[in-house]
From TrEMBL:
This is Response regulator transcription factor. Residues 3-120 form the Response regulatory domain. Keywords: DNA-binding, Phosphoprotein. Signal peptide: none annotated. Residues 142-207 form the HTH luxR-type domain. Transmembrane segments: none annotated. Pfam families: GerE (PF00196), Response_reg (PF00072).
């Protein structure tokens, strides 16, 4: 395992984090701007560390799926999740998917380098405030309405927030229309809401579903 892989679909963000990884002393850096290229590059080079954005345009929190696939292929993979999401439910989901650390896109450069170096050394990293929120998550069920949602449901909810129809979500995620309908019904049951409009209202209220 050698080098570092950065997977992000925003060119400016990709360039910025590449510079920070270089500042951390890494010379061999690989980049990917979509999920397929990210997985193929990971499969080919087996990087020492992978930095993976959670949110990709038009596909919600699909970075979680990529992280799971990476860990399935390489159980010892060292993965640093990268995101603007500060919801402890999403942070916990990233860790459950196989990330060893979680870095926020708006954190200072020195904090990102610390996160990167910690994961590179094979240790776990979470910003202190997020670590506390994740630890208290089970004690605050009413403050975490998305806690029982699956990764797929979170992806669909994020796309509902963007205004996509059932058909649009099915096309974006390459899943069946009935799968989307069933997932939305399951989310309504979990939240105790009776209509699609109420479900979309919940999605809009969740600021941490934004990319």
């Amino acid at each position: 395992m050698t080098g570092v892989l950065i997977v992000d679909d925003h060119p400016v963000v990709l360039r910025g984090f590449r510079c920070m990884v270089e500042d951390a002393g890494v010379e061999m850096i690989f980049e990917a701007t979509d999920l397929v290229a990210g997985y193929r590059t990971f499969h080919r080079i087996r990087p020492q560390v992978s930095v993976v954005d959670l949110t990709f345009r038009g596909s919600g929190l699909s970075g979680l799926t990529l992280i799971r696939r990476m860990r399935a292929l390489e159980p010892k993979a060292r993965i640093l999740a990268l995101s603007m999401h500060q919801d402890p439910v999403i942070v916990a989901r990233a860790l459950q998917s196989g990330a060893m650390g979680y870095a926020l896109k708006d954190m200072p450069a020195d904090a990102f380098v610390e996160a990167f170096r910690t994961v590179r050394a094979g240790q776990c990293y979470l910003p202190h405030a997020l670590a506390t929120d994740v630890a208290l998550l089970s004690a605050r069920p009413r403050e975490a309405p998305l806690a029982e949602f699956s990764t797929r449901e979170l992806q669909i909810l994020a796309l509902l927030r963007e205004g996509k129809t059932y058909e649009g979500i099915a096309d974006t995620l390459a899943i069946g229309y009935r799968t989307v309908v069933g997932a939305c019904a399951a989310m309504r049951r979990k939240l105790g809401v009776s209509s699609l409009a109420e479900l979309i209202g919940v999605a809009i209220a969740q600021d941490d579903l934004r990319s």
